[in-house]
Amino acid sequence: MDFSSLKIIQWNSRGVMGKIEAKKLFIDYDIIVLTETFLNEGDSYTLKGFNAIRFDRVSNSRGGILFLVKSHIAYNKLDLNILYNFEQIELAAITIDTNLGPIDIIAYYRSPVHQTGHSINTWRHEWKLVIDKVQSLNQVIFLGDFNAHHPWWGSDKACPYGDAIINNIDIEKIALLNDGSATHISLTKGEYKSSCIDLTFMSYSLLLNTKWQVLDDN
To answer: Whole-prediction pTM value?
Structure first.
């Protein structure tokens, strides 16, 4: 696969079943990365011309990660070998073959909902394990719904999660692609508010062949 022509889209679907218009958009891409798929074991989700690699959240139906990879692209599931039972993080990964060599694509999701017994200190420990692994890989694309705020990627102010992400990123190893554009719009008390919570990081060796942008969600 020629990396310079590879098109990847990432989206928090908040339930992928029944969203026909999204499928029409997906066919223009080579790899689709979906978080919060809400898929259960009995659910069937397919897209013609694509292989579906599912990482359903067994302990909670309101989660799950899905990769859709065009059938002509060679890929493998990637075992990150992080020997830890995550409480607050969902993580899934594949490796694809390209003209630049193998590239690891890692999808990440953290729920903004605080569950009983789940502390930010627990998340900080989990995040450190994840980012250390990501930054140890040779060529990586690390993307997803981080549910974290920081001015570095366009937020008005930082939250503890955003601060922790910044503190553990080695800017000599991976680059942030976000340009400050909002990636999420919510309706709160009758008022629409935008935020930037979906992030994409990438190895520097891949940057020259990359363009990043936010699409309208309509």
So the answer is: 0.94
Tell me how far CA of residue 174 lies from CA of 29, 89, 109, 122, 142, in angstroms.
24, 20, 19, 24, 9
Q: 20 Cβ partners below 8 Å, 6+ apart?
A: none
CA–CA separation, 35 and 108 (whole Å): 8
- The SS3 call for residue 79 is coil
Q: Which residue has the tokens 């900080």?
A: 124
CA atoms within 13 A on the CB side of 22: 20
The residues, ordered by sequence, that sit 6+ positions from 189 with a Cβ below 8 Å of its Cβ are none
pLDDT for 53-103, tens place per residue?
999 987 665 789 999 999 999 999 999 988 778 888 999 999 999 999 999
Residue 182, pLDDT score: 92
Residues 6+ apart with CB under 8 A from 106: 78, 80, 91, 92, 93, 134, 140, 141, 142, 143, 144
